[in-house]
Design brief:
Elements lengths: L14 E12 L2 E9 L9 E7 L5 E8 L5 E10 L5 E9 L4 E8 L7 E2 L13 E8 L5 E7 L4 E7 L6 E6 L7 E12 L6 E11 L10 E10 L2 E4 L5 E2 L7 E5 L9 E5 L14 E2 L6 E8 L2 E8 L18 E7 L8 E6 L5 E7 L4 E7 L1 H6 L5 E6 L8 E6 L2 E6 L4 E6 L8 E6 L6 E6 L15
Parallel strand pairs: 1-20
Antiparallel strand pairs: 1-2, 2-3, 3-4, 5-6, 6-7, 7-8, 9-10, 10-11, 11-12, 13-14, 14-15, 15-16, 15-17, 18-19, 19-21, 21-22, 23-28, 23-32, 24-25, 24-31, 25-26, 26-27, 28-29, 29-30
The structure holds beta-D-fructofuranose.
């Protein structure tokens, strides 16, 4: 069984994709580069693929931007606009001799073609695990680069006035679980809802390693704090999950988004079983883009995520009935009934996804079951339960786009993102509520126009 392509999520026409790289908004267009294998749908020959979009939902794929070369793979990194009308990319050169160091490339044609710097690598610590440079523009001018010493579980910081000379300003970490590597850091300044205040938020991805690696696999976290003298300082040293699902990793934000909004894209997979996801000739997709914010809930600053949705739900006159594997499902639990609400999505095979909303325990759970889920990987099937932070009775939104399922609850404060194996055939939605007749469920089908005009990427 091969899972269907998503309609409103970025996925390559063919071949393997992982992390988003070099997300940048220029000349009214969103550009996404990404970890890409131009030669197959397994991880390898890492290069930067490229796609662009005017609305973040319909993507046009472009030729490979930065191809791997003999002895050098192009790992994750970022793009900034500058100097002048040039675009500058920073990426990790993963050399066959084992060193990982940061390199630079520039583009003068809006990101289509790139020229690596003759002086590469431009930042080399002689480390085998120094990677994923994310360059951000500082509010008062100048640039800051974050990268990881992955095995040491440290984010290292460098400052520059000209994107040319870099000065190390400090490091953050280690903390949290020990048997993981730290990857793909980002630093965003977010507004606190209902106030004029802002706080800095460190985004970080961790991947379990070693013989006894945690079977739950890779995951994204955040830490709220401040930026002091070019180094992140946590308010409280703890890694908080960005997403309670199994499949959200390596998320980073766009440079240059209008109004300075933090818009994040993340890879919707898990290193634990990414290689086994049954799709062809492509493998790997991005999450829906999400704007990020902060909300104080019970005294704690929480990350909130609002998806860029393909439909304005308020504009849909009547519920589009029916069964489709590409739909937005809005659920309004009846606050008077306050019972357990079960939403069961069933595919044509025995595959099912169950979403259980329990206002009494204030939890939202998502389970994956069925033969395809069980055979995909021993650690794939099962249940994830997220604590609800607000009243426990609010509405939630489910976006199902082929193999991708994203659930947004608590007005964006609780999110679960999962790969699902419902397949490309009809999906039926059964809603049952313990305490009332039937919960209000609105289903809006996603149009089939999404990947139209997708250009086949040229071979490297
Ligand atoms: C994260 C990661 C990065 C690395 C890239 C290689 O998923 O492991 O640390 O740069 O993928 O593809």
């Amino acid at each position: 069984m091969s899972l269907p392509r998503p309609r409103v999520h970025l996925a390559p026409a063919r071949n393997w994709m992982n992390d988003p790289n070099g997300l940048v908004h220029i000349h009214g267009r969103w550009h996404a580069f990404f970890q890409y294998n131009p030669e197959g749908n397994d991880w390898g020959n890492m290069s930067w693929g490229h796609a662009s979009s005017s609305d973040l939902l319909h993507w046009e794929e472009h030729p490979v931007a930065l191809p791997h070369r003999p002895g050098e793979q192009i790992f994750s990194g970022s793009v900034v606009a500058g100097p002048g009308s040039t675009l500058t990319a920073f990426y990790t050169s993963a050399y066959a001799h084992g060193i990982q160091a940061q390199s630079r490339a520039t583009s003068v044609d809006g990101g289509l073609t790139w020229t690596p710097d003759a002086a590469n690598p431009v930042l080399d610590r002689g480390s085998a695990d120094f990677r994923d440079p994310k360059v951000i523009a500082l509010p008062d001018g100048g640039w800051l680069m974050l990268a990881v010493e992955a095995v040491e579980r440290r984010v290292v910081f460098y400052a520059s006035d000209d994107l040319d000379t870099w000065r190390e300003t400090g490091a953050y970490g280690p903390l949290g679980p020990e048997d993981v590597v730290w990857e793909c850091p980002d630093l965003v300044r977010l507004e606190i809802e209902g106030t004029d205040a802002t706080a800095w938020v460190l985004l970080l991805s961790t991947n379990p390693v070693g013989d006894d690696a945690d079977p739950s696999g890779s995951a994204m976290h955040y830490v709220v704090g401040d930026l002091v003298d070019g180094v992140f300082r946590a308010e409280e040293n703890a890694l908080v999950p960005v997403d309670h699902g199994r499949d959200l990793y390596a998320g980073v934000t766009f440079h240059g988004a209008p109004g300075g909004t933090a818009v994040m894209l993340a890879w919707m997979s898990n290193w634990r079983y990414a290689h086994a996801v049954p799709t062809a000739p492509w493998r790997g997709a991005m999450s829906l883009p999400r704007t990020l914010g902060l909300r104080r809930i019970a005294g704690v600053l929480r990350l909130v995520q609002h998806p860029v949705l393909p439909v304005d739900l308020d504009d849909v006159p009547s519920p589009a009935a029916g069964v489709t594997p590409h739909a937005v499902i809005e659920v309004h639990p009846d606050p008077a009934a306050t019972g357990i609400l079960r939403l069961r999505l069933e595919g044509a095979t025995d595959a099912a996804v169950e979403i259980v909303h329990d206002p009494a325990t204030r939890t939202l759970a998502v389970s994956r079951s069925g033969e395809v889920a069980r055979t995909l990987h021993p650690d794939f099937a099962g249940t994830r339960t997220a604590p609800l932070l607000e009243t426990g009775a609010g509405a939630f939104t489910i976006v199902l786009d082929g193999p991708l399922l994203e659930v947004f609850a608590d007005r964006g404060a609780t999110v679960l993102s999962h790969l699902v194996t419902l397949g490309g055939g009809p999906v039926t939605v059964h809603a049952t509520a313990e305490g009332s007749e039937a919960p209000a469920v609105r289903i809006v089908a996603l149009a089939d126009d999404a990947q139209e005009g997708l250009a086949a990427p040229a071979a490297a």
